[in-house]
Amino acid sequence: MATLVGLAESVGLTPHEALSGVFGSVSLASWIFLLVPQLIENYKQGSADGVSLAFLTVWFIGDITNLAGAVWAGLVPTVIALAIYFCFADLILISQCLYYNLMNARKSRKAFMRSTQTRDGAEQPLLRRESSLGLPGSHRRRSSAASRRHRESIHRRDSLASILEGESGHGEWVKNTISIIGVCIVGAAGWAIAWKSGVWTPTPVNGDDGSMEIAPVAQILGYASAVCYLGARIPQIIKNHREKSCDGLSLLFFMLSLLGNATYGAGILFHSVEKQYFLTNLPWLIGSLGTMVEDATIFVQFSMFGDNGSPSVIV
């Protein structure tokens, strides 16, 4: 990234302009790949039980208001296209979650009905067989010994599983880190190509004092989307805490969210720090930078609960 900024500066592009462009491009790459890890995680597990539908629904409402605000404000076509992409991507993830929830609910009902039908017929023969075994007390002694051996076997398996899970956790963390670095490289390279080809040029700040006019309704929609983004993660945080587990959640999903929000906010701030420009973009800054605190909370939950209620090794 420093090389790209140095190259840009050598041909008349200021470091702030270059950094704003690079951060904006990295943010774009993060948003494009954001939902893919969670879609894959749901597919691998055949379930979406780990994801809060309230989280996705409020987030979807935030994306809709963001799209409406972008259209109302007459923002550049790329911003509007990205907002449309967000809405479609949200619908895909929500549809996948609803599908798995419906299918698994049907399977659970069928399994419950089968177990209810067979329970009574299975209990009586089992009791008769137990009553006819050996001398009084012999079955109890054998059961006690078998139970002891069974507990020892479970303990050995759990110990081995914890070791394997620790190794797997470190491997997953390495893969996620490599993925984040790859997204940063793709974003920076995309900006360099766009700049060299003339597709990207520095966007001037309108007004002599660095101000930028925006429709009041668009500003209101921007604040509405910020409120939705800030509130969306709360149901997921509550769900993780209540179940003491992050099972079914993709850590990379939240890492990309953190990267996207951080670089989005940085792209705005590096573009201009004029007071009026800052106030104009305040709702979008609140929506991006504010959710980073909630993403950090979910990272702490991953560390505390892991995937199955046991301590994780990601930190």
Automatic annotation (TrEMBL):
Subcellular localization, as worded in the UniProt entry: Membrane
Catalytic activity: L-histidine(out) + L-arginine(in) = L-histidine(in) + L-arginine(out)
One GO MF term: basic amino acid transmembrane transporter activity
Membrane topology: Multi-pass membrane protein
Presence of keyword Oxidoreductase: no
One Pfam match: PQ-loop
Gene Ontology cellular-component annotations: lytic vacuole membrane
Segments traversing the membrane: 20-40, 52-73, 79-100, 173-194, 214-232, 252-273
Bias (Basic residues) ranges: 138-153
GO BP term, example: vacuolar transmembrane transport
Keywords of this entry: Membrane, Transmembrane, Transmembrane helix
Annotated spans, Disordered: 132-153
Similarity comment text for this entry: Belongs to the laat-1 family.
Name of the protein in its database record: Vacuolar membrane PQ loop repeat protein
Organism: Lepidopterella palustris CBS 459.81
